[in-house]
């Protein structure tokens, strides 16, 4: 008997193809890429597995009803007509998240309120009692998506965004989002088959995500809770089987993962976060300036980092980015160096031609993930030797 149903995994701009590949590798059916989303088929166990294992997903939502809607009265009526007893009881709590792309519906909080009223009124009229709203820690998070005249009602199986991995308790100013970090690593081609360096590691997010990819550790194994654990039909035994099966697929890592930072506080935070993720044996962090460093391995090195930015750096931008280029040229032969920047002007000062530029967003900032290939010896000699 096939108990599959349709689900949607939400993601960041530019990660749709990565997420679709992850879903296929996990065993999802009928995978279709959308905009910042990928839809797919799977059963309840697969929903648990998607939340646990996907690195580039922000949410896994389960659509339960869709209809056309032209005004607020029709929205109220159609929400009211749904059988909410299947997913809610009078002693459970709920919250509504609304996304709008509509000329008729323009205020998401107002739509959330209207949907809440319809659900509460239905319970009150049927049972004489009603479930309460809890915006922060609801038992059920309901997702309402209106695009023009089409409304999708879904259950949010994740709860808090899946970038809340559970290992990061200490952060620096403007830390990189864990889903973004993981996606950038995958875009860079990181597969755990070489040594790795983050020379400006901040609170250690790239280092931790790189180790988890290298060892094939489920992305959200350290997370405290998923929303589906509060659902009426939650199967704890099945979820434990999914966890055990996923952990059985981890692999050993035989290279080095290294992080540098000049700030003692950043080094401490990195070490703490890495310990929280149970990855201390794989990652070495030390206080060091990238600009005073040399390549720590004779083998190929994979480098991914997020250079700091801010007001102070604006004055030194030209010098800072020129130093990145000089250090790569002089000290890092045999290295694929990738970094993300929202300062597109600054790239001119690196003094190297990037071999790739990928458009991504860091929060709301349009950015580029750039790649610089540092050859062993001169580039000319490399191609002559191939002949």
TrEMBL record:
GO terms for molecular function: methyltransferase activity. Coiled coil: none annotated. GO terms for biological process: methylation. It comes from the Bacteria. InterPro entries: RlmKL-like_Mtase, RlmL_1st, SAM-dependent_MTases_sf, THUMP_dom. Residues 46-157 form the THUMP domain. SMART domains: THUMP. Keywords: Methyltransferase, RNA-binding, Transferase. The keyword Lipoprotein does not apply. Pfam families: RlmL_1st, THUMP, UPF0020. Gene3D superfamilies: 3.30.2130.30, Vaccinia Virus protein VP39. PANTHER family: RIBOSOMAL RNA LARGE SUBUNIT METHYLTRANSFERASE K/L, RIBOSOMAL RNA LARGE SUBUNIT METHYLTRANSFERASE K_L. This is Class I SAM-dependent RNA methyltransferase.
């Amino acid at each position: 008997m096939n108990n599959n149903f349709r689900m949607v995994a939400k993601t960041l701009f530019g990660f749709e193809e990565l997420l679709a590949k992850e879903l296929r590798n996990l065993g999802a059916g009928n995978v279709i890429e959308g905009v910042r989303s990928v839809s797919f088929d799977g059963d309840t166990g697969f929903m648990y597995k998607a939340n646990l294992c996907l690195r580039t997903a922000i949410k896994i939502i389960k659509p339960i009803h869709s209809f056309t809607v032209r005004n607020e009265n029709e929205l109220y009526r159609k929400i009211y007509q749904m059988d909410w007893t299947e997913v809610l009881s009078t002693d459970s709590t709920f919250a509504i998240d609304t996304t709008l792309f509509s000329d008729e519906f323009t205020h998401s909080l107002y739509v959330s309120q209207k949907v809440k009223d319809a659900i509460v009124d239905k319970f009150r009229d049927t049972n004489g009692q009603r479930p309460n709203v809890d915006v922060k820690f609801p038992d059920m998070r309901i997702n309402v998506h209106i695009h023009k005249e089409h409304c999708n009602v879904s259950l949010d199986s994740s709860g808090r965004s899946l970038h809340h991995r559970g290992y990061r308790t200490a952060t620096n100013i403007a830390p990189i989002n864990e889903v973004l970090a993981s996606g950038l690593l995958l875009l860079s081609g990181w597969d755990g088959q070489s040594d790795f360096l983050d020379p400006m590691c901040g609170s250690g997010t790239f280092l931790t995500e790189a180790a988890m990819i290298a060892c094939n550790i489920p992305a959200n194994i350290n997370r405290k809770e998923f929303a589906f654990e509060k659902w009426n039909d939650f199967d704890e035994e099945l979820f434990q089987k999914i966890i055990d099966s996923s952990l059985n697929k981890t692999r050993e890592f035989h290279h080095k993962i290294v992080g540098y930072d000049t700030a003692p506080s950043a080094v401490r935070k990195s070490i703490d976060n890495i310990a929280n993720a149970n990855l201390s044996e794989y990652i070495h962090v030390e206080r060091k300036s990238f600009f005073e460093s040399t390549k720590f391995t004779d083998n190929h090195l994979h480098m991914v980092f997020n250079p700091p930015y801010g007001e102070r750096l604006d004055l030194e931008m030209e010098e800072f980015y020129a130093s990145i280029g000089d250090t790569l040229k002089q000290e890092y032969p045999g290295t694929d160096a990738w970094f993300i920047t929202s300062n597109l002007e600054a790239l001119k000062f690196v003094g190297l031609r990037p071999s790739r530029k990928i458009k991504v967003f860091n929060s709301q900032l349009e950015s580029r993930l750039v790649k610089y290939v540092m050859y062993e010896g001169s580039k000319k000699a490399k191609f002559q030797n191939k002949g």
